[in-house]
Write a structure and sequence with these properties.
globular; 10 strands; alpha/beta
Length: about 250
């Protein structure tokens, strides 16, 4: 029997008295693309950041590719497991977070060399392959300030892929982009999904959710309000909350 690539149980997150995530569960199967949509402040980005412990969950467990972490476990083992999970889960942020003092190539080779101790020649060869894959071979020696937002985000995706992750987490990857640049990033994400990458995507791009997702989840006030396959979710939503939200965005 195939095990889920991601298993979340009873996940809660508090920021002081604010209860942002309220006991959610989630299984994501290998090669599945799950898209999370919802209003601002619903907890979507926080949930994603809890998956790789950029935010420490307040309660619950997260398991990624067989590595399980309980929230708030003290000690060295906990930190080691977080490092393991981060190597398995690549993340692409809303802001591209590239190192401004490094070229596109430099940004991509940094983590494989420092974290994975990959020989430099091997890291460069891999980075050049990835730059070609995201359509930026000609930009390998450019600094981020010389790249458009769409190009920077494609370098950020290549950088995440250089660590050979098992899953990719996307946190509103197109929301900082000008409208005409969104397509080039979405196209790379579609190709990634087509190659069988397990993906959890927080996005406002309804076309992507409709065309690429295996499952769409509406998150509202820290819980899953509705979940279903995209054709059902968008054409025949069951929950009143989903109908209201879709009425605003479609």
């Amino acid at each position: 029997m195939v095990e889920p690539m991601i298993k979340v149980r009873g996940l809660h997150k508090y920021f002081g008295p604010l209860h942002v995530i309220k006991g959610v569960d989630l299984d994501v199967m290998p090669s599945e693309v799950v898209v999370i949509i919802g209003p601002s402040g619903a907890g979507k980005s926080t949930f994603l950041r809890c998956l790789n412990f950029l935010e420490e969950p307040s309660a619950g467990t997260v398991e990624i590719d067989g590595v399980e972490i309980k929230a708030r476990e003290p000690g060295r083992e906990h930190r080691r497991h977080i490092q393991e999970i981060r190597q398995k889960a690549g993340m692409v942020f809303q802001q591209f977070n590239l190192f401004p003092h490094m070229t596109a190539l430099g940004n991509i080779i940094e983590a494989p060399i420092t974290v994975k101790k990959m020989p430099k020649e091997e890291a460069i060869a891999k980075a050049e392959e990835l730059l070609e894959w995201v359509g930026l071979s000609d930009k390998r020696d450019e600094y981020p300030s010389r790249l458009s937002g769409g190009q920077q985000q494609r370098v950020a995706i290549a950088r995440a892929l250089a660590m050979e992750p098992k899953i990719m987490l996307f946190d509103e990857p197109t929301s900082a982009l000008d409208p005409e640049l969104i397509g080039e990033v979405v196209e790379v994400m579609e190709r990634l999904a087509g190659e069988g990458m397990t993906m959890v995507v927080v996005t406002h791009e309804i076309h992507f959710a409709r065309d690429v997702a295996d499952r769409v989840i509406l998150m509202d006030e820290g819980v899953w309000a509705e979940t279903g396959p995209p054709d059902e979710f968008f054409t025949n939503p069951k929950e009143e909350r989903t109908k209201q939200f879709l009425a605003h965005i479609l």
